[in-house]
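Worked example 3. Consider a protein that binds flavin mononucleotide.
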Amino acid sequence: MKFLAISGSARRASTNTAMLYALQSVAGSMLEISVYDRLGELPVFSPDLELDPPLAVSALAKAIAEADGLILASPEYIRSIPGGLKNAIDWLVSRNEVIGKPIVLAHASHRGNDMLHQLRIILATLSDRFNEDLFLRIPLMKLSPDEVAAHLSAPRHQEEMRRFLDDFANYCAPAVRLP
Ligand SMILES: Cc1cc2nc3c(=O)[nH]c(=O)nc-3n(C[C@H](O)[C@H](O)[C@H](O)COP(=O)(O)O)c2cc1C
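Given these inputs, the predicted complex is written out as structure tokens:
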């Protein structure tokens, strides 16, 4: 099974991106997670460009099409969704790749509930398989990269991340796990 983990942060030392790479590293051998942390490469969306989209957009759409599920993790900017993530979603909204795609949220801060609320509304609009009940939250805001790494390798968080991935894998392919 393949998941695509999309970070809504373009920051080099992003805690959300670090959390997605930690998910990648705890994933078992049956699960392949690719981290997409290149939202900054997408041009600003215009409906005029949809018929012949830029390469970066086509590459993201292909990665989504090939994934069995999407995990999104994003910071909150000004009580809202960062422009880069919203721009990516604008590119995807009238395409086929996200329709019916299982999607879950992860979040690397104890704050950001306004952004989460808005993103949940958008994702439920994009896909009828957005699962609001599966949610991973590991507060890492304002920690240094070393502290972030230490938190993410703590047994409690490793277990939380494994359980989250297991639950999402079950949601994506319930039949696979049935006795
Ligand atoms: C421009 C800007 C605006 C922000 N606005 C908010 C905000 O409204 N609410 C909030 O809780 N945090 C806000 N933050 C803090 C980020 O959401 C927070 O630091 C987040 O954990 C960063 O995620 P990252 O490490 O993945 O980049 C803001 C940060 C920036 C740079």
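Take a moment to read the result before moving on. The mean pLDDT is 96. Residues 9, 11, 14-16, 75-79, 108-109, 111-112, 141 surround flavin mononucleotide (CB under 6 Å).
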